[in-house]
């Protein structure tokens, strides 16, 4: 830290992304990326013709891609906002809607970026505790008269709540904005995006980073009523009007035209999730039921941090947090069957070593 940094950032705790080591090849099960490459049409879309256009700025309104997404989700183009990863969208949500009079609430165990943005903007925020086995009780959020962010399915637990439960939260907080972060919705959950037609205070946040194999392209989007979208636009045009680059835009359009490929990949992930969960159960692990492309799991005979380190030394990366409430647990991304077999083989080795 230099002596020039504004004092309002002195105590800012930043988000710590999962490791992206470049030193050796790991089986990467730590940041919930897809193990599958983008569809062939996506690889072709990043063509010489598109690359040759990189001397020109992209369309700041991203009309082609927004229209494609609108058609895909049966909404209108004015219901769609695009962001540089959904992290940028979350940033704009905190920036646009939250302040000292409009505080924000989110679950105590959830995506690590929420408290970071709250701190960045020096917002009053409430972390609402989860219940036994990381269950989220929707009634904790009904009528609280705060802005609300909920990841559904939640990360890192994998648990989801129902659309009816989300509707109750949205319906009882109409003086505030409810953001449902659906980063993992395409792995078996049910999206609440159609509720945006009924409620003007609901924003649904999705990403191309997980189900759509495009984490490196950085694309997220919001669906909501046009006035909320205009508020987000205000943030965008005050920070970076060209937030979506040409190559990502071309890749995303081809992605939406290859939907079957991604739906099939999601089926494989869901099969591998069931396979891995039951194999771990036989090894004495307890796993939270997941509707996402990862599982949250723990073993009685080895603490979470020790398991994480032992796996890393054997070339497998998973995610572990050194926080008291979840220190026993590891979050394991569900990859290809080969990756999960390698992971399970190393887990068996480690258990033999400790027992
Ligand atoms: C991965 C993730 C995101 C961010 O994804 P981007 O790559 O920025 O689109 C947002 N929310 C949750 C809950 C996530 O797990």
Describe the model:
The protein is an alpha/beta fold and 355 residues long. The chain has helices at residues 40-45, 48-52, 63-72, 85-97, 113-120, 163-171, 226-236, 246-256, 259-282, 304-313, 337-354; strands at 27-28, 80-83, 104-107, 125-128, 147-151, 178-181, 202-207, 220-224, 285-287, 294-299, 316-317, 330-333. A hairpin with a 6-residue loop joins strand 9 (285-287) and strand 10. Helix 3 (63-72) runs parallel beside helix 8 (246-256), helix 4 packs across helix 5 and helix 4 (85-97) crosses helix 7. Pyridoxal-5'-phosphate binds next to helix 4.
Please tally the helical runs, counting DSSP H or I stretches of 4 or more residues.
11
Q: Determine the mean pLDDT.
A: 96
What is the molecular shape?
globular
Please state how the strands of the largest beta sheet are arranged side by side.
2-8-7-6-5-3-4
Ligands present: pyridoxal-5'-phosphate
| Estimated structural class | alpha/beta
Q: Which range does the strand content fall in?
A: 5-15%
Tell me the distance between the termini: 45 Å
């Amino acid at each position: 830290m230099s002596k020039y940094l504004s004092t309002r950032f002195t105590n800012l705790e930043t988000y710590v992304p999962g490791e992206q080591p470049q030193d050796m090849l790991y089986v990467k099960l730590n940041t919930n990326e897809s193990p599958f490459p983008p569809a062939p049409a996506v690889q072709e879309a990043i063509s010489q013709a598109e690359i040759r256009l990189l001397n020109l700025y992209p369309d700041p309104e991203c009309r082609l891609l927004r229209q494609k997404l609108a058609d895909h989700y049966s909404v209108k183009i004015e219901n769609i906002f695009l962001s540089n990863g959904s992290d940028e969208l979350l940033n704009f949500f905190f920036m646009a809607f939250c302040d000292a009079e409009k505080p924000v609430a989110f679950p105590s165990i959830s995506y690590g970026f929420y408290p970071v943005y709250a701190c960045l903007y020096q917002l009053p925020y409430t972390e609402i505790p989860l219940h036994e086995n990381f269950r989220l009780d929707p009634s904790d959020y009904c009528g609280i008269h705060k802005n609300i962010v909920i990841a559904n399915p939640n990360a890192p637990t994998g648990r989801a709540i129902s659309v009816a439960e989300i509707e109750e939260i949205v319906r009882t907080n109409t003086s505030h904005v409810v953001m449902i972060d659906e980063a993992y919705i395409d792995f078996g959950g049910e999206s609440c995006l159609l509720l945006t037609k009924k409620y003007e205070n609901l924003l649904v946040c999705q990403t191309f980073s997980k189900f759509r194999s495009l984490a490196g392209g950085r694309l997220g989007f919001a669906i909501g009523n046009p006035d909320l979208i205009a508020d987000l636009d205000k943030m965008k045009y005050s920070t970076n009007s060209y937030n979506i680059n040409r190559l990502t835009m071309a890749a995303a359009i081809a992605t939406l035209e290859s939907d079957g490929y991604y739906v099939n990949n999601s089926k494989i992930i869901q099969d591998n999730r069931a396979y891995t969960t039951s194999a771990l159960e036989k090894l004495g692990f307890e796993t939270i039921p997941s509707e996402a492309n990862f599982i949250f799991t723990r073993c009685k005979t080895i603490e979470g941090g020790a398991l994480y380190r032992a796996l890393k030394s054997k070339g497998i990366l998973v995610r572990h947090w050194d926080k008291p409430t979840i220190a026993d647990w590891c979050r394991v991304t569900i990859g290809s069957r080969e990756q999960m077999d390698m992971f399970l083989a190393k887990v068996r080795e480690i258990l033999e070593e400790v027992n």
